[in-house]
Amino acid sequence: MTTFDNGLTAIELSDQERKALKELSEFPFFEAVLGRRSRRFPVGGEIPGGVLAFKSRKESRPLTYLQRALVLATVTGQTGRHFGISRHPGYAPQFPNYSGSAIGRTFPSAAGFHTTQFFFTDDSGTYFLPTRDDVLDQQLDINTFESDDAVENALNSVLARAVRISDERLYLPREQPYFEGHNTWIGNWPGSLLVVPVAALAQQTLLNIAFFSQNGYVIYDDINDREIPGLEKYRHRLVHFDDPRPLSFVEQYSLAEASAELMTSSYVGHLALGAIGLGGWSFDGIDRLSVVGASGNPQVPGLGFRYDTDERWAMPNPTGRDGVFETFTRPHYGSMRKVVEALAERKFGPGGPFNSAAPGPWKDSETVRGAAAPFDDEFMELLTVQAEYVDETFGKFPGTVPSVWIMNYLQAQHLDTDFYDEKFSPGAYLSTHAREQERWNS
Q1: Helix 247-276 to helix 201-214 angle, to the nearest 10 degrees?
Q2: pLDDT number for residue 48
Q3: Is the pLDDT of residue 392 over 90?
Q4: How far apart are CA 112 and CA 67, in angstroms?
Q5: What average pLDDT does the structure give for the chain?
Q6: DSSP count for the chain of H helices, then E strands
Q7: Which residues contact 184 (CB under 8 A, 6 or more apart)?
Q8: pLDDT-wise least confident of 38-42, 140-144, 362-366
Q9: What gap in Å lies between CA 184 and CA 187, rounded to an integer?
Q10: Sign of CA pseudo-dihedral 57, 61, 63, 64
């Protein structure tokens, strides 16, 4: 077997796995949607008391290498390049410049912002899995499952991208506040795969400030009931200057968009569980500060994010892990001007959605990408003035919501069908669950 530098084992399909993949590719869409349930009870699990008390007669065991790769590729995978925003009359004849990434993934993102990255943990360790910007060697597409080589290459491209940050499963004490009480018995269970989508909310917010500014609006500080100083200079390019957007609205807007991205990524993974025949569910009952390492308990290092505290804030503010996942914030870039420059580079630099050299889905992608409205020097100043004000006034960016946001997790595990046979009416699981071990040699 081939092993990547990160310790993950490459996929080399057996004849049995090829047959299982053929069945997987033919799994009906509506069976996945209508058969979706949160199936929490795994092999090796136990509910110690109450009306559903049950102890598994089987041992916990991890997913197969192929099952793990399928789940990860479904939740995080790239699927080519998205189509962008086709038209806005206020930009014409230029191409709207909303997007943050040129890459399409298995879940939607508002205006192609794509600020979400992923971490995952299982019995083999804890990993960072970036699929947001750099193109994978082989991407998933609708024809992937027609070729065994294409499946192997696409899955191995995802696995090879992972960065191992620990050789141990993410540690969280099985008690509140680390878990919600109803998840203490099962969350992050031995043998399971736990996928953690993380939204770079600072970047989501900056992208939205750019979006509103490009469309003629500025923000004002409704928390302190004052205008942002220095914006009058840019009135000539802001057709809605006298109708500013409240800061709290823009930041709540960004939080909602990012949460939708997190939720849909875990949801598409949840649909894949039914097709594969795995148990598990999409949920939010793990404390996000504990996951990133900002619980304040040194015995619970989480994902090792740096964070700050301030008497003005109700909670710590994580901003990322140095050298691994760094958000568009002053602690990682040194100044908000550098943050704005990084945003422009992501949009217009090599591989960006508005770099004419980047491949695209259009017949003349070079012309389409090259027609995007630019970030000129004055616009960069306008963004910087607003971003610096928020950072200086509130001590962080964004001002009223976290810089990093976690909402949903996906947990995948082998289902103990004995529990459902004993405690539920027929139909509590799908035929794929009944045949899972047989199909995947798991």
Answers
A1: 120
A2: 95
A3: yes
A4: 28
A5: 96
A6: 14, 15
A7: 174, 175, 176
A8: 140-144
A9: 6
A10: negative
One-letter amino acid for residue 297 of the chain: N
As a dihedral over the C-alpha atoms of residue 354, residue 360, residue 366, residue 370, rounded to 10 degrees, the angle is: -20
CA distances from 257 to 53, 179, 402 (A): 39, 25, 14
Q: Is the pLDDT of residue 92 over 90?
A: no
In this structure, what token pair is assigned to residue 211? 């979006």
Structural contact between residues 79 and 67, judged by C-beta atoms closer than 8 angstroms: no
Query: Could you give the CA distance from residue 404 to residue 316 in angstroms, rounded to a whole number?
Result: 11
Centre a 10 Å sphere on the Cβ of residue 46 and count the other Cβ atoms it contains.
15
Check pLDDT > 90 for residue 142. Answer: no
Quote the radius of gyration of the chain (alpha carbons, Å).
23
Q: Which helix (H) or strand (E) holds 65?
A: helix 65-76
For 18-73, how does the pLDDT look when each residue is reduced to its tens digit (9 = 90+)? 999 999 999 999 999 999 999 999 999 999 999 999 999 999 999 999 999 999 99
